[in-house]
Structures are given as structure tokens and as C-alpha cells.
Amino acid sequence: MAAEQGVRVVGPGAGAGLGKVVRALLLLLYFAARSSALYFHIGETEKKCFIEEIPDETMVIGNYRTQLYDKQREEYQPATPGLGMFVEVKDPEDKVILARQYGSEGRFTFTSHTPGEHQICLHSNSTKFSLFAGGMLRVHLDIQVGEHANDYAEIAAKDKLSELQLRVRQLVEQVEQIQKEQNYQRWREERFRQTSESTNQRVLWWSILQTLILVAIGVWQMRHLKSFFEAKKLV
Amino acid sequence: MGRGARSSAFPVLLLLLCADRSLGAELTFELPDNAKQCFHEEVEQGVKFSLDYQVITGGHYDVDCYVEDPLGNTIYRETKKQYDSFTHRAEVKGVYQFCFSNEFSTFSHKTVYFDFQVGDEPPILPDMGNRVTALTQMESACVTIHEALKTVIDSQTHYRLREAQDRARAEDLNSRVFYWSVSETIALFVVSFSQVLLLKSFFTEKRPMSRGVHS
């Protein structure tokens, strides 16, 4: 109460200053929070691939941010706008479902239509070797799958949900993800069983066939040699 | 004007903070032979982080792993492990790095899964974190169910990884049986024909020599 009165009393000039301070603070917080994603280093022509084994109809959101090593300042600076990353996503049948170039900071989204291993590959589009100056590119990456990809603040704002309703919504999303994963598990287990049965069949038929071939070859050898020796009058 | 700036700043602040996800990552990546892959993450002091990793496909399904703190000390090092779990409370604030190495392998590239979690899961709305009142029964029931479902999802992930590993081995076995059978059949034919030919050549007189003998 006193603080509010203090703001009112001080006047519009100081209020605008306070707004600026708040804005600066939140920008700082934003960048501070943003910089804590996992990062790794990538060479210039290197292609880094990540695999996501997901059931069908699952949304995947990936965020990345790149930084380039500045030799003069000896630290990593945000990359120049010309430097971008090429993102390629392949579905389990090796069909490309997303192949786009993004800037030095980007966000890609895709939804799986077939269950299985999806491959997300990233490589930089830099053709100027001097740009890297022998250094590496630092890539901050964050991939969220399924329920984790949901933005609950947005959902709460759009559907006007109370806190409890939002929690229940989160539980519903989690249960749906569990169900999808279980269906996928059943599909995988069937495929695994087919592979095992195929191996079993193959081993059985090949051993029978090879025994028959062995016997047939043995018989042929003896007959051929016998006729050969008879012709030579040695037998 | 101050009020206006203040009221417009907070929703923006909320929105920006909401856009951030829980710290940590769960990734599956390919590790070529003779390669090393490092990941880095900033961790605050006193925060507990955990690293779970598992090799899914490739070779003998093993990998070297080490974790270093910002001062360069190795706080965890294991060689040729198939899967492991490591938790640590960060004593120093800074960038921690963990690396997976396949340098001992000459021709098998591996697929490695890791799950790096830092701290606790943040609440789904940031203002839920600083509550003054206690949770109602409904809300605490929701929290319990949420934690239980997270355990279910975690065990589903572990089951999926083990199944992927077994399936990779089974498919490997299947193709190996096929190639081995085909090559053995070919070898069988080749060996038997050459045996017969060789034997015949022992008993076949060479024409120039036999003519010399006769004359």
C-alpha cells in the first residue's frame, strides 16, 4: 500500500523510469533464463543427428540458439545474422518430413504421423570457412516431446482455466501420452516378435537345406569320381 | 503512466518466464567410431542434477562417460559402461560438462541415450511456485497423481530403450543368419567342385609328358 502510494506520489516521470527499469530487468531475466539450455559444439561441415523414438500423432518442438567464438573477445558471441542452421527431420521410413533453413536462432515443430525413430539433423549452412576462423559453433538445443511441448500458460489463457483445472488438464495430457506410448509399445513388440520368428524359421529351413545339399553333393562326388576312375581303368 | 508501464510489464514477464521449460534434456544421438561428444549445461550452486545414460545400438553396447565440474575436476568417470545413473549436488556454480567417448572402438558407431535433469521440475505456471496458502486436497491429489504419472512415463522410457536394444540385437542376428547361410552354401559348392577337380587332376596324365613316355 505504501509502495503503491509512493509510486503515485512520485509522478509520471519516475513512473516511466520505473517501467524502463522493469523492462530492462525482465529482458535480463529472459536472457539469463534462456542461456541455461544444454549446449554442444559443432564443426563447420559437421552434421549432428538426434533420434527421437516417438508414437504417432506426437508433437515435437525444438528450440536452438547459436553462438560463434569471437577470437578478439575470446568468448562466445551471438552469431551473425547470415549464419543459419539447416534442420532436416526424417521419419522412420527415411522420408524427409521437414527440411528447412532457419536463422542463427530458430524453432522447429513437427508432428509424427507414423510411430518410430525420427531423425533430427542439424548442420550449419556456412560456406565461408573464414567465418568460423578454425573455431566451433556453439549450439544451445532444447527438444520437447509430447506433453512437455505444451505451453500451459497459453492453454490457461486461451481456455480460461483455473489453477486446478490446469493441473487436471496436465494430468489428462500425461495420461494420453502414456496411452500413445503403450499402443506404440504393442506395435513394437509385434515387430520384434516377427523378427524373432523369422530368424527361427530361417535357421530351421537353412539347416535342413544345407544338410540336404551336403548329402547331395557327397553322393554326386562319389558317383562322379567312380565313373572317372572306371574310365581310367583304375577300379 | 507508471501504473500503465507496470501493468503491461507483468503479463509480458509472466509470458516470457512461462516460455522456458524445465532445465535439462533427454536426447538420443549418434556417436561415430573414434569420436567424443560433449554436452555442457549451466548449473546453479547447491542444485542437484542427475545424468542417466544408456547405449541403445552398436558394437558391444558400451561407452565411456565422464562428468567435469566448472573447475575442471572429474567428478564421475566410467569406462565401457552399458548404462548408468549418476547424481551430484553442484558445489560450484558454472558450466558442467559431460562427455561420451567411443574412442576405444574402431568401426562400430553407437547410439547413446541420455537424460540430464537439473533441479526440480518448475511449476506449470510460475506464480504457482510462490504460494502463500497450503494446497487444497484436490490440488495435492493432483500433485500426487502427476508424480505417479511421471514415474510411469519414466519406466515406459526405460522399457522402450531396453526393447530397442533387444530389437537391434535380434535384427542383427536375423541378418547375420541370412548372410552366413548364403555364404556357407556358396562355400560348400565351391569347395566340393574344386575337390573333385583337384582329385581328377592328380590322375590325369599331362598330354606332352605322356607323348614323351610313349615315344
Automatic annotation (TrEMBL), chain A:
Pfam families for the chain? EMP24_GP25L
Coiled-coil segments: 154-181
Show the InterPro entries listed in the entry.
Answer: Emp24-like, GOLD_dom
Give the membrane topology, semicolon-separated if more than one.
Single-pass type I membrane protein
What SMART domains does this protein map onto? EMP24_GP25L (SM01190)
Subcellular locations according to the entry: Endoplasmic reticulum membrane; Membrane
> Major place of localization?
endoplasmic reticulum
Give the UniProt keywords, A-Z.
Answer: Coiled coil, Endoplasmic reticulum, Membrane, Signal, Transmembrane, Transmembrane helix
Presence of the UniProt keyword Membrane in the record = yes
In what residue span(s) does the GOLD domain sit? 47-145
Transmembrane spans: 203-222
Superkingdom of origin: Eukaryota
Instruction: Give the protein's recorded name.
Output: Transmembrane emp24 domain-containing protein 9
Q: Which organism is it from?
A: Orycteropus afer afer
Gene (UniProt): TMED9
From TrEMBL, chain B:
Residues of the signal peptide:
1-24
Sorted alphabetically, which keywords does the UniProt record give?
Endoplasmic reticulum, Membrane, Signal, Transmembrane, Transmembrane helix
Task: Indicate where this protein resides in the cell.
Answer: Endoplasmic reticulum membrane; Endoplasmic reticulum-Golgi intermediate compartment membrane; Golgi apparatus, cis-Golgi network membrane; Membrane
GO CC, any one term: endoplasmic reticulum-Golgi intermediate compartment membrane
In the record, the note on similarity to other proteins reads: Belongs to the EMP24/GP25L family.
UniProt xrefs under SMART domains: EMP24_GP25L
Q: Does the keyword Protein transport apply?
A: no
Keyword flag RNA-binding = no
The organism is Orycteropus afer afer
InterPro entries of this UniProt entry?
Answer: Emp24-like, GOLD_dom, GOLD_dom_sf
Q: Where is the GOLD domain?
A: 36-118
Q: Where are the transmembrane segments?
A: 177-199
Q: What is the protein's name according to its record?
A: Transmembrane emp24 domain-containing protein 3
Membrane-protein topology: Single-pass type I membrane protein
Question: Which Pfam family, just one, is annotated for this protein?
Answer: EMP24_GP25L
